[in-house]
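Risk mitigation, structural track. In case the binding assays with F7E fail to produce interpretable data, a predicted complex structure has been prepared as a fallback.
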Amino acid sequence: MSSGSGRPRALVTGVTGQDGSYLAEQLLGEGWDVWGLARPASQPGNTRWIDHLLRGNDESGPRLRLIAGDLADASSLDRAMATVQPDEIYNLGAQSHVQVSFELPAATGQVTGLGVLRLLEAMRRHCPRARFYQASSSELYGQVVESPQNETTRFYPRSPYAAAKAYGFHITRNYREAYGLFAVNGILFNHESPRRGENFVTRKIALAAARIRAGLQERVHLGNLSSRRDWGFAGEYVEAMRLMLRVEQPEDYVIATGDTRSVREFCEIAFAHAGLPLTWRGSGASEQGLDEDGRVLVAVDPRYFRKAEVDALRGDAGLARERLGWQPRVTFRQLVEMMVDAELEAVGLTAG
Ligand code: NAP
Ligand code: F7E
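Fallback model:
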């Protein structure tokens, strides 16, 4: 597997996002040439998590290069594929926010759903022997029909985002079966890190805990505190993506911890770690989290309720453990504390 420089090449869409940045780091660490497909920005600023990889792009330094493209624009994907001639393609680009997908359902369908088809078509034309990873999601299970969820569990999407991901899942499998492409789906359960977008619940809570402790914010407004997720650490989940492309047979895999926790539990650990232990009062739309002095630090705001909620997810990654040798190492508590520590450091504080 090599081309041009003699080093193997990867093309990563969504390289400016949480997973893209960790994946690019790991591929570069393995000696790959990495090209990140990125939307040309009208304003600089979204390369925060990859700036360290873009610096020193020379023979001795890191080898991350950006190539302009948009999953909504087939011609740009065609050009990128022809230029890079990748050995591995990781499709991480998406409109990835579930709540936003209710506001922008067609745009989400275009990018998160049809974008997968456009990329597969460009791959089929220019590099059919490459290996393709599709970022599928536990949101496919939505209103779950069994627990825990594994590779055979029936899908029940509950949002325009999940419906678009269902299309992406099936078209990836279809191109594998119809054209013999090495194309796989990683069905990843929620994974988080200090690089998580600020409008996802874990980062929002971690940021708030640190900022409230520093006196920069009074409280945080959240939606459904009872919602449960199987949360893991993103750095480990992108390792699983690479492993899926390095086995002989293309197969779809669930990646998860098997542990399920509520948003409320996330808040409790995060705020306690920031030195602000919470007690709860009220329930539902009037629930509040208070500190030892009775100040309201967490308040429920129905604006953040989903039009259709995914109540509880828990994954079974047994197949990945058996065939890929992958298993999670970071516990839920370690993940929460890692995220809060990063935010405390950002405001010049430490835990406790
Ligand atoms: P993220 O931080 O939201 O990153 C999304 C990336 O997609 C960004 O780099 C964004 O670029 C790019 N993007 C958005 N619209 C695009 C377009 N039209 N064309 C090309 N790129 C576009 O997401 P993430 O958490 O890293 O997740 C990576 C992938 O895994 C996504 O597909 C997500 O849906 C999926 N997934 C995530 C999780 C999770 O828990 N994190 C779980 C399962 C599946 P800009 O910087 O230009 O906005
Ligand atoms: O919500 C509840 C919310 O937006 C988690 C994406 O990466 O993972 C992510 O989707 C839960 C939901 O992530 C707030 O109602 C309460 O039940 O952090 P989230 P998500 O919707 O699970 C999947 C696997 C993906 O594939 C997606 O790309 O938390 N919640 N209060 C809230 N959620 C948000 N965002 N904000 C709140 O204030």
